[in-house]
Give the backbone structure.
Amino acid sequence: MKQFMKKANFKGHLLTAISYMIPIVCGAGFIIAIGMAFGGKAQDSLVMGKFDFFQALATLGGKALGLLPVIIATGIAFSIAGKPGIAPGFVTGLAAVAISAGFIGGIIGGYIGGWLAFAVLRYVKVPSWAKGLMPTLIVPFLASLLSGLIMVYIVGTPVAWFTTWLTNLLTSMNGTSNLIFGGVLGALSIVDFGGPINKTAFAFALTLQAQGINGPVTALQLTNTATPIGFGFAYLVAKLLRKRIYTHEEVETLKSAVPMGVVNIVEGSIPIVMNDLVRGIVAAGLGGMCEGAILMSLSDGKGATVPFGGFLMLPTMGAKWWVGLLAIAANILVTGIVYALIKKNIPEGADEPVAAGAEDEEDLNLDDIQVM
Amino acid sequence: MKIVGVTACTIGIAHTYLAQQKLEDAAKAAGDDIKIETQGTIGIENALTAEDIKQADVVILAIDIKIADEERFKGKKVVKVSTETAIKSPNKLIAKLHEISGK
C-alpha cells in the first residue's frame, strides 16, 4: 500500500497543479480586489457601453477565479500524463464546473483524466499507420470521453452532495465553532510556511470560497500576511527586552520579508524560520491561531471576497473590514512577542555567516530518495 | 565529481532557491563541481546545457513538482528527492551521491 501511494504520488501531482494555479489566483485575485474595492460587481457578460471600468475588472477577475476547478484538473492531469493529459484535464475540469462539483470535483477529475490518458497511452496499441492518430485523436478522444462521462455520471453526484453538505455545515456554524475552526485553520495555514500543509489548507479554503464561504480563505491569507510582519515586530520587541535574536543576515532577510508579507507572500520569512524551526513554528502557529479565531468569530465566518492580497483584501470585507485589521494586528503582536520571548540570544559575533557542517544536520530521510 | 541538478518547489519563489544554494554550498565543501538549474515561477534560470549533462557523473533532482524536460537525463544516474531533504541535509545528500555514483 505504501509502495502504491508512493508510485501514485497523489500529493506531487496536486502540488504541481497548485504551482500552476497560484499565479492565476494572485493575478486574478488582485484584479477582482481592485474592481470590487471601487464598487464593481462581477457580471455574467460584458456588453460594450453597459459597464464601467471597475465592473470590467471585477468581471475579468471573477471569470478567471471561476476557472479554478478547470485549472486544477488540467494541472493534475498534465502532471500525470504530460502533454496528452491536458485535453482530458480541461474536459473533466469543465465537467466539474457544470455539475457544481467545484474545486473538489476538479481535483478528482484531474486524477481521473490524467490516469486515463496515461492508461490509453500505455495499453491501447495501434498499427504503425495509425501512430499519428494516437496523440491527435485517439488519446484525447478516448481519455476525454471516458473521464468526462465518469465525472458526470459517477463521481459528480456524491461530490456535489458532499460540497453542499460541507457548505451548509460551515454556513450554519455559530460563534464558538467558528472560533475553534478559525483557530485550527489559522494555525494549519502557517505551521509549514507555504509548504504542503499550507497549500492543502489553502486548497480547502479556496474550495469553500468557490461555494461562497469567504471566511476560511480570509483567515488563512491574513495569517500569511501577518506572520512575516510579526517576525519583523519581534525584532523591535527584542530590542526593548535588550535581546539580540537575529543575525545580521536575518535582519537583511527581514527587510524583504516584511514588505512581501504586506502583499500576502509568506515565503520570505522561511530563511529565518529555518534557522530556528521549532521556536519559529510555535510563534507563527500561536499567532495564526489567534488571527483565525478572531476573524472567524467576530466576522461570523464572513470574510473578504478575494482569496489573495494581504491588506488589499480588507476593503472587500465590507462593513467588517475592521475585524480583518484587528486579526492581523493580533497575529503580528502574538507572533512578535512570543518569538522575541522564546528565542535564545544569539552568541556574540554571530553576525558572521557560518556554514553548517555535516555533523549538525538532520539525518537523511532515506524514504525520500529515489534512484533511477 | 561533477554534479548537475534541478530544483523546483510548489510556489517557485523560496524553496527552489534555498535548495539550490544549499546544494551548491555542500558540493563545494566536498570539492565537487556543481551546476543547479532552477525552475521557479519565473521560469528556468541557470539552465543546464547538453554538454553539462553529458559530463555529469550524477544528476540530483530536488523537486516537489513535475519539472520541464526531465527526459534530458535519460541514461544518467538520477537521484530524486524533495526540496525539503536538500535544504535540511545537503551535506549528507552530497555524500550519498558520492556513494551512489561510486566516485
